[in-house]
Amino acid sequence: MTLPSAARIVEVGPRDGLQNEKRYFDIGVRTQLINMLADAGISHIEAGSFVSPKWVPQMANSDQVFTGIERRSDTFYIALVPNLQGFELAVQARANEVAIFTSASEAFAQKNTNCSIAENLARFSPILTRAKQVSIPVRGYVSCIAGCPYEGDIEPEAVANLAAKLIAMGCYEISLGDTIGSARPEQTAQILKAVIQQVPVEKLAVHFHDTNGRALDNIRTALEFGVTVIDSAIAGLGGCPYAEGASGNVASESVIALLNELNIEHGIDLTKLLKASDFIQAALSKTQ
User: Fold this and answer.
1) Which of 38, 51, 143, 166 has the CB geometry, 3.0–4.6 Å to 103, for a possible disulfide?
2) Tell me, what's the pLDDT at 287?
3) What domain count does the chain have?
4) Quick one: which of 216, 255, 264, 272 has its CA closest to 41?
């Protein structure tokens, strides 16, 4: 299979990464991290979420983060939203893209969102209708594409069917997430074969956790299938509060090194990215 000539990084560290840390980071740390990532050339950055602070206290005051960042015209600042109320808060905060989230595992959906997959989709419908009215793109997350801590292995067809439903509802892109980091490259290939039968590959992204040290191998497999969008987190931040033992997301620095090795263009300054990594790691060490 031919590798793509270019790839795009979606940086999830400021949201998906920091939300799994044990304590809240102040607005200054969060905004400075986002500014440094944008300055490094990352065009899509998850800046925060509008989930209730009761459930995700680390993402409290995301509205102030969106207000405090030094906005760049070439950067999309993404907000995770669970429902229409969260979407409206994201609009007020001037997010220029939103993300919605569900799971290919029924048990995980219940644990993570307190409702079924079908109920998740019902919640998304008014978000997508409203997003179309105000011209805000919506990204869909499908978690547990390979395995679930409660159900075990997930059938690729279940992932494909759910991804197709989200595209039909109006998502412009689907991020396929290996939430517990259990995927093997051959399993990733099976999943992508199934999904690509229902969703064009140019509408897909991959989101790997590095629990078992296979994230880069899985990303290479996805690139071979023609996927050109990769989620990653600065300094490998993250994990999942609903999946015990899941380690962090694949590190953005490692993904850029892989893309450099494969001669795939990405437009990111690795030196500046490493400075952002040093910054957040220093902030983390002060809180431990």
Assistant:
1) 143
2) 55
3) 1
4) 272
DSSP secondary structure of 180-248? TS---HHHHHHHHHHHHTTS-GGGEEEEEB-TTS-HHHHHHHHHHTT--EEEEBGGG----TTSTT--P
Q: What's the CA gap between 257 and 86, in Å, rounded?
A: 36
Q: Point out the catalytic residue in the list 144, 148, 171, 240.
A: 240
Residue 74 lies in domain:
8-287
| Residue 78: CATH number of its domain | 3.20.20.70
Distance (Å, rounded) from C-alpha 194 to C-alpha 196? Answer: 6
Q: How many CA atoms lie within 13 A of 208 on its CB side?
A: 29
Task: Calculate mean pLDDT across residues 188-199.
Answer: 98
Query: Which amino acid, residue 235?
Result: A
Is 134 domain-assigned? Answer: yes
Q: 171 an active-site residue?
A: no
The residue with tokens 């509060």 is 241
pLDDT score of 243? 44
pLDDT class for 246, splitting at 50, 70, 90?
A: very low
The tens digit of pLDDT for each residue in 16-58 reads 999 988 888 999 999 999 999 999 999 999 999 999 888 889 9
How many other C-beta atoms lie within 10 A of the C-beta of residue 47? 29
For residue 221, tell me if it sits in a domain.
yes
Decide if 198 is inside a domain: yes
The mean pLDDT value for 131-157 works out to 95
Owner of token pair 């102030």: 64
User: What is d(CA 56, CA 83) in angstroms, rounded to the nearest whole number?
Assistant: 15
Residue 176: phi and psi, rounded to 5, are -95, 115
281 within a domain of the structure (yes/no): yes
**pTM of the predicted structure, to 2 decimals:** 0.94
pLDDT given at position 239: 57
Lowest mean pLDDT across 16-25, 49-58, 140-149, 235-244: 235-244
Residues in the chain: 288
